[in-house]
């Protein structure tokens, strides 16, 4: 990992934090989320330092990182809202504890991120099989591939799920 000169990041932060925060606050309509994402943007800058050719390039770089973080933020919110909606339809006695909720939401985010890394057809096949319970032949017709390809897609998706499970087990054990 490349070591970043602290003064370079400090100068970038001092020069652009307020601008970035205001940009995010307008985009998110929430000061707390804007502050969090501005902070996360500068953390990413620390992890992937750049050479800049002036203020325009600096702001463009920061805005690009922030845009990606906003998209992730909105996806996470949408996923959480869908889960909370599904949870609200269950009897109160069947609701998980706050700790279980946090684990479930984090696992949903990890699965969503895993699905985003897969090719579109693989992801579609997995969702149709796992969430909608469709048979392979129907999935093939839906996404325009043979039943044999559906089997390959599902094997690929399940391999990614197994890798994700191993990663999560490693995080939970340590």
UniProtKB/TrEMBL annotation:
Gene3D superfamilies recorded: 1.10.1740.10, Winged helix-like DNA-binding domain superfamily/Winged helix DNA-binding domain
Family: Belongs to the sigma-70 factor family. ECF subfamily.
GO biological process, one term: DNA-templated transcription initiation
Keywords: Sigma factor, Transcription, Transcription regulation
Domain RNA polymerase sigma factor 70 region 4 type: 109-161
Keyword Acetylation: no
NCBIfam families (alphabetical): sigma70-ECF
A matching Pfam family: Sigma70_r2
RNA polymerase sigma-70 region domain sequence ranges: 12-78
Any GO molecular function: DNA binding
Signal sequence coordinates: none
Name assigned to this protein: Sigma-70 family RNA polymerase sigma factor
InterPro entries attached to this UniProt entry: RNA_pol_sigma-70-like, RNA_pol_sigma-70_dom, RNA_pol_sigma70_r2, RNA_pol_sigma70_r4_t2, RNA_pol_sigma_r2, RNA_pol_sigma_r3/r4-like, WH-like_DNA-bd_sf
